Amino acid sequence: MTDPFHDPRFFSDPYSTYDRLRSASPVQKIPTGSRGHHAYLVTGHAEARLAFADPRLSKDTARFFADRPSRRNIHPAVSRNMLASDPPHHTRQRAVAAPMFTTGRIVEMRPYISGVVDRLLDGWTPGAEVDLVEELAVPLPVTVICELLGVPESDRAMVSRWSNDLFDAGDPDVIDAASHAIGDYMTHLVEAARETPGDGLLHALLQRSEAGLLAQDEVTSLAVLLLVAGHETTTHFIGNSVLALLQHPSSFARLQQDPELIAGCLDELLRFDSPVGIATFRFSTEGLRLGGVDIPAGFPVLIAPGAANRDPAAFPEPQRLDLDRNAGGHLAFGHGIHRCLGAPLARAEAEIALRAIVTRFPGMHLAIAPEDLAWRHTRLMRGLKSLPVVLR
To answer: Are strands 27-32 and 37-42 parallel, antiparallel or unpaired?
Structure first.
């Protein structure tokens, strides 16, 4: 078998590949890259849910690569963050960050999010063609998380470019350079926040550090994680959702007639085209059996929410967008102790953006054929490079 993610066609249509792999086995050993390395890929929903919660699958990348020389040069604030750690370090850091993203805090933010959406859409002219990714799906979550972290408005486009480079598959040197750009930038921003009074997220993290709950380097790494993860998945959540609705006109029309339905269909939109294709790195610390397959110790394990969310054993007729489906069991935000911390914020941003779109531009349609859309070439994220639409 060749690396299933090496084919460029995978990025425009991963689901045929996922279906083929899952039909052979919900867990299987696959080659990765061109150096003879292998990993175990999890494509079944039940198996993915178990894998997400299995403590024998570690996210401590430093531990995995300790005796495996690497030529990569990733900034420590990017490579050694909460997402790349196990309990008790993960437990302590998550306990510090979780109160910042409670449902109550997000409710308080909704007026600000609505204001950002309105300002962005106020510049759209009926009859014109716009790139919905560039002019809404990217700037909305970037603006929100940068505002929370105190990133100056003049720096936000630059930060967004670094984040884009960090996630796009391609030249490792470009990815490494982007990690240092973001890591160095956030180091300076944290130091600036330390010297000035304020009540933003950075100041809250610094207070936790002064109380002994976070080490100094953990403040920076957590800030980097919130900055990057805080907008990348939401960008693709919005873009993929709008595309799905435009490709299903009856569903789009239904939401136009009753925008109150939007909040209840977010899970189905997340399931249908998950913004996360392959979850972040895990490896087996000991041998385990999953989906009838024995996984030895020391192997990377790739959990694919994009595949699990299209598993017909969990969701009948998974290729059909069904706004009435109970899709609450989807794995787009992960599962277990590493479930996405910012899920409530992502849902609020997507709901408010979709409500504004169906209300203000009910006749919106694609400006190009779906097969001509350009998708980002990264197996981690499932997202469009652009989404040209005509406004009506």
So the answer is: antiparallel
**Per-residue pLDDT tens over the stretch 83-119:** 999 999 999 999 999 999 999 999 999 999 999 999 9
Strands 301-303 and 37-42: parallel
Strand 129-131: give its sheet, edge to edge: 129-131, 388-390, 365-366
Q: Which two tokens stand for residue 375?
A: 């998708």
Alpha carbon separation from 290 to 3, 43, 244, 331 (Å, rounded) = 21, 11, 32, 17
Tens digits of per-residue pLDDT, 191-207?
999 999 888 899 999 99
How far apart are alpha carbons 293 and 156 in whole angstroms? 45
Q: Is the domain 9-390 a CATH 3.90.1310.10 member?
A: no
CB 307 within 8 A of CB 18: yes
Say how many residues make up the chain: 392
CB atoms within 10 A of CB 229: 20
- Sequential DSSP letters for 65-85: TTTS-------HHHHSSGGG-
Predicted structure pTM score: 0.95
